[in-house]
Amino acid sequence: MLHFTKIATVAALAGAVMVGAASAQTVLRSSDTHPDGYPTVEAVKHFGKLVEERTEGRYKVEVYHSAQLGQEADTIEQVRAGVIDLNRVSLGPWNGLIPETTVPSLPYVFRSVDHARKVMTGEIGEEILAAFEAHGVIGLAFYDGGARSFYNSKKPIMSKDDLAGMKFRVMQSDIFVDMVAALGATATPMPYGEVYSSIETGVIDGAENNFPSYDTAKHAEVAKHYALDEHLIVPEVFVMSKVSWDKLSDEDKAIFKQAARDSVEKQWELWDAQVAASRAKVEEGGSKITTPEKQPFIDAMGPVYEKHVTDPKLQDLVARIKAVE
Ligand code: GTR
């Protein structure tokens, strides 16, 4: 009996020590709308691993995937308020708040995914990341979100004109609403998590996204016609709440920033593999991919640029992006 008590005491003491050690570690919560295993989720986990190693375990990152902490627009508010420490979202939902984010969200502003990668990891990308701080978050890095195209449940899209009168879900940004209108269709902004059922019940005819999202959110089950028009290449952004950032020492800030940078290449690698795998999977599942001529789509975008790129600073950003070889 005595022996048992002793063991119990030793165990309790060991527990106390462990609690002490655990409290020396700050756990940071990061949000992502995508499921576990998605390239952005894995890239943030990689970032967390680097941060944990480089701070000798003083910081740990937990990724809450699958929109466990809410839909993107809500998590953006939460990260600004310091309720969530870290967040990986699309650049689109920031458009109403941070003017600089509208430029990489413009249709056909990038010539290709490679062009977007080069711009977003270069001087222009750094400038856009810096614009976040005035809005309560620190821009840590941009990830690749690939090219987005239209898909629908109704019919194959063989040319731009086939979109006339159709109804598509877009992310919550006026740019995307105006982009769809310029193509003769109607846009309904709504959270990502509502798209599947809205297509299924016929509230909308379809949506637009890259292959990995079309596949993993299961939109391909309810919208079998995918038209490869690649109208948007919207970067993903990884941010930290300024509330959490301000608690870091200068040394730790540098570690976080570098770890985010170091996670980008990992995301690109995973992304390329996921695009190929998702495309193959949706085709096996019966999705039909058409390739409408792109030029009429590009030509239709004049009104979007006229309305959204009026500020000389944004005009300059567009020109500089286009000039990047
Ligand atoms: C995905 C993007 C998500 C989310 C989603 C959407 O491509 O990775 O962050 O923005 O699109 O359409 O809402």
Name of the top-level CATH class of the largest domain: Alpha Beta
CATH overall fold name of the largest domain: D-Maltodextrin-Binding Protein, domain 2
CATH superfamily of the largest domain: Bacterial extracellular solute-binding protein, family 7
Quick one: biggest sheet?
Answer: 5 strands, mixed
The 3D shape can be described as: globular
Broad structural category: alpha/beta
Helix content: 40-55%
Which molecules are bound in this entry?
beta-D-galactopyranuronic acid
CATH architecture of the largest domain: 3-Layer(aba) Sandwich
Please state roughly what percent of the residues sit in beta strands, choosing from under 5%, 5-15%, 15-25%, 25-35%, 35-45% or over 45%. 15-25%
**SSE order, one letter for each helix or strand:** HEHEHEHHEEEHEHEHHEEHHEHHH
So how many helices? Answer: 14
User: Average pLDDT across residues?
Assistant: 94
Numbering strands along the chain, what is their spatial order in the largest sheet? 2-1-3-10-4
Structural account:
The chain has 325 residues and is α/β, with parallel strands linked by helices. The protein has 2 domains: 19-145 and 234-277, 3-Layer(aba) Sandwich (D-Maltodextrin-Binding Protein, domain 2), CATH 3.40.190; 147-233 and 278-323, Bacterial extracellular solute-binding protein, family 7 (D-Maltodextrin-Binding Protein, domain 2, 3-Layer(aba) Sandwich). It contains 14 helices and 11 strands. The strands form 3 sheets. The chain has a 5-stranded mixed beta sheet, with helices on both faces. A 4-stranded mixed beta sheet has the order 8-5-9-11. A two-stranded parallel ribbon has the order 6-7. Helix 2 (39-54) packs antiparallel against helix 11 (250-284) and helix 6 packs antiparallel against helix 13. The longest helix is centred in the last third of the chain and has 35 residues, at 250-284. It is globular and about 60 Å long. The structure holds beta-D-galactopyranuronic acid (GTR). The site of beta-D-galactopyranuronic acid has 11 residues, from strand 3.
